[in-house]
Each structure stands twice: as C-alpha cells, then as structure tokens.
C-alpha cells in the first residue's frame, strides 16, 4: 500500500470575526422570518352597525398587528369587492371607480394610517345603504378583509325596521356611557 500526502487545510477554522458575522446574520435572518410568519388580520367593526337615515356612519378598519398602511391599497365595498364604496391606492384616494350612489358622500380619515388604522365616514345615510360592507387591505406581502352589516333605521315609510327600537335604546345607552 502506498502513502499519499493528504492535506487537511480545508478543516482549518474560519477566523473568529467571520464566525461572529455569520452567527449574527443567521440570528437576524431567523428573527425576520419569525416576524413575517405572524398572520396579519384585518379588523372591522366586528358586528352590525346601526345608522339613522340622514346621519353619518363610521366604518373603522385596522390591521392586526398594527402595520404602516400608507403604501397599501385600502378598499371599501358594498356586498362584493367590485362594488366600490371608496378606494385608497398609491397614497391617494381614487374616486373614478367609486359607485355613483357614494360619490361626494365618503371621507377617509387617515390620521392613524401609519399605525394601520383608518376610518371611512359615510355621510347622509339613505335606506339603500343598508346591507353588507367590507374593507380590504392589499400589499405585496398579504391581503385580507373584514365584513360587517349596516342596518339603517327609518328605512321605510318613516318607520324603523323591526327590532330597531331595541337597538336604538342600546345605542343611546352606549352613547350615555361614553
């Protein structure tokens, strides 16, 4: 059997600064992946909203966890996503896709948009506003939506819909407790 010279140079340790750099990079990478793995949710009103004909109603929507939404697309819709109530995209409000019945009746409050919180105000509520609503957030990393129902009091013939009196009493109690 012949002896061959064998070099073990490849087993030499890498200098400490390179090891330290690698470990730091690895830890930062793992932390970043863990933060991104947290599920982002869109939170809306959470229950039916009661509005009075002629009044204004708020549609709050926010992200959880709270993230900056300035560069996201935020879209309010009625019944289905193609029925645009209000659209925010590219850091501006876009009114060209808004349904005719909502033109000049919506206002977007963006004072807390950098924290992922926005509110859409719908002015001069009319009986036909009653129904399902939603808001959606869209970014490069995720999309999500929240859905709720708007009930309108005083929607027919000057009378409130069935059960509205009890809801209005609860609404008045809630207003007094604030």
From TrEMBL:
Predominant location = membrane
Where is the protein localized? Answer: Membrane
Q: Name one Pfam family in it.
A: V-set
Any GO molecular function? signaling receptor binding
- Mitochondrion among keywords: no
CDD domains on file:
IgV_MOG_like
Give the keywords, sorted.
Answer: Immunoglobulin domain, Membrane
**Which BP terms in the Gene Ontology apply to this protein?**
regulation of cytokine production; T cell receptor signaling pathway
State a GO cellular component annotated for this protein. external side of plasma membrane
InterPro entries assigned to the protein according to its UniProt record, in alphabetical order: Ig-like_dom (IPR007110), Ig-like_dom_sf (IPR036179), Ig-like_fold (IPR013783), Ig_sub (IPR003599), Ig_V-set (IPR013106), IgSF_BTN/MOG (IPR050504)
Q: Where does the Ig-like domain start and stop, copy by copy?
A: 38-135
Which PROSITE patterns does the UniProt entry name for this protein? IG_LIKE
Q: Record's PANTHER family?
A: BUTYROPHILIN, BUTYROPHILIN-LIKE PROTEIN 9
UniProt protein name: Ig-like domain-containing protein
According to its UniProt entry, this protein's organism is Urocitellus parryii (Arctic ground squirrel)
